[in-house]
Amino acid sequence: MLKFKVKEIQKGLFMLTDPLEVNLFLIVGEEKALLFDTGYGFVNTPTAIKEITDKPVTVILGHGHLDHANGAYQFDEVYLREPDFDLCREHTGSKFRKMLVDRLEETGQKLDVDPETWINSGECNLIPLEVGTIFDLGGLHVEVIDMAGHTGGSIGLLIKEIKILLDSDSANSHCWMFMPQSLGINEYVTMLERVKNLDFDTFYTAHQDFPHDKSFFDKYISVAKNVTMENSTPYGNDNWKELEPRVYSEGDISIVINERVISMV
Ligand SMILES: [Zn+2]
């Protein structure tokens, strides 16, 4: 049976890593719980959550990409910023899901449910999420932070009492800023500079399993400010070659861009 790897990062905050290595986060307060992102949707997520808590769970997507949104179908409703609604519907559609079943099988794993049913399970009921909303879980307050850049609807969640930011793909050490949904590079830099000033010490992303010190934001700002078409090199990822992505690195931090996002002002 497919399962998450579950790690309690600290009291009330769990990281759930799915079979293709994307992280979901479960925040458990005294009265309620909140799930951030739903992963690829291979694992029975409501059952996995029940093994951790029986408190009512609100589900929020950090953005609309397939590796974060495909598990949404397992819930009655999920919150997402409206700019990512169309993207989410496309990425949870049968074309992308079919590809994911193949990718899972390439790793020697198999779905527990009928593949045809899974491929056609869609996105579920999307509820518009507003920036600035604060979810009171009982002893933990979680604020929705605008982190548009990677996609127009990307957010982060700031857990105020423990000063931790969860950021999906919105800011990470290998940020894909070449996607058709990505905003211009200048907007991305402005967002990073704004979020850096918020009251948090540590952040977690969906594709790395360790805590990041806030100072990583300075590195992300530096690569985003310094990247050009000239100092970047072709990005060898055949799945996206029609978008002509290029990669630029400073130490272990990199950013993937293309002509479109570099030239947007
Ligand atoms: Zn993404």
Helix content bin: 10-25%
Shape: globular
- Tell me the quaternary state: single chain
> Number of helical runs?
8
The largest sheet, given as strand count, sense and whether it forms a barrel, is: 6 strands, mixed
CATH class of the domain at 5-170 and 201-218: Alpha Beta
Instruction: Please trace the helix and strand order, writing H or E for each element.
Output: EEEEHEHEHHHEEEEEEHEEHEEEH
Low-confidence stretches: none
CATH fold name of the domain at 5-170 and 201-218: Metallo-beta-lactamase, Chain A
Radius of gyration: 18 Å
Strand content: 25-35%
Overall pLDDT confidence: 96
What class do helices, strands and sheet pairing give? Answer: alpha+beta
Number of strands: 17
Distance between the termini: 48 Å
Widest sheet: strand order? 8-9-10-11-13-14
Question: Can you give keywords for this protein?
Answer:
single chain, alpha+beta, five-stranded mixed beta sheet, six-stranded mixed beta sheet, binds zinc ion, Metallo-beta-lactamase, Chain A, 265 residues
